[in-house]
Amino acid sequence: MKRRDFLLVGAAAIGLLGAGKLRAAETFAVTKTNDEWKKILTAEQYHILREEGTEAPFTSKLVNERREGTFHCAGCDYPLFESSTKFESGTGWPSFYAAIPEHIKTRKDTSLFMTRTEYHCANCGGHHGHVFDDGPKPTGLRHCSNGAVLVFKPSSKQA
Questions:
Q1: Which of the following is catalytic: 76, 121, 124, 144?
Q2: SS3 at position 109
Q3: Residue 88 has what pLDDT?
Q4: Model pTM score
């Protein structure tokens, strides 16, 4: 099995095992029923944002996005990351060393027999990925993001 095939199978397993763990205690400015979310999201976006799934690595066109702009939540259009904080992590997912302050929230994730830090949109609660401490300076963080649930908006200079 090639390394890429192994990663694809692993990501699919993570997505299936991670499904259905959304936070019940938190409240968000944007709230919708499951049926309302399903009407505005693709099946993949719903799985990632509302069921804490994971897209396969190297499948998002945003991995190679290099223009100036902002990355928004696909669920509620809330800006999450500036392009100036994006970097190439080699993981196959869009990665950022910093989020827009106060625009994401984190929580401890103990699924898959390990402890990680999950992050989600502070506006709608949609799951976006995990934060790791192996990123570049100045923060040393890597926000490993599911590109399927990000919408890139180029700056007015790039549009």
A1: 144
A2: strand
A3: 97
A4: 0.82
Q: Is 144 part of the annotated catalytic residue set?
A: yes
User: For tokens 């066109």, what's the residue?
Assistant: 61
Residues whose CB is less than 8 angstroms from the CB of residue 98 and which lie 6 or more positions away in sequence, other chains included: 81, 85, 138, 139, 141, 143
Of 4-13, 16-25, 30-39, give the range with the top mean pLDDT.
30-39
In sequence order, the 6+-apart residues with CB closer than 8 A to the CB of 56 are: 7, 8, 11, 12, 92
The dotted CATH code for 3-154 is 2.170.150.20
**What one-character DSSP code corresponds to residue 68?**
S
How many separate helices (H) and strands (E) can be counted in the chain? 3, 9
Kindly give the residue spans of alpha helices, DSSP state H, lying in the chain: 3-17, 34-40, 43-51
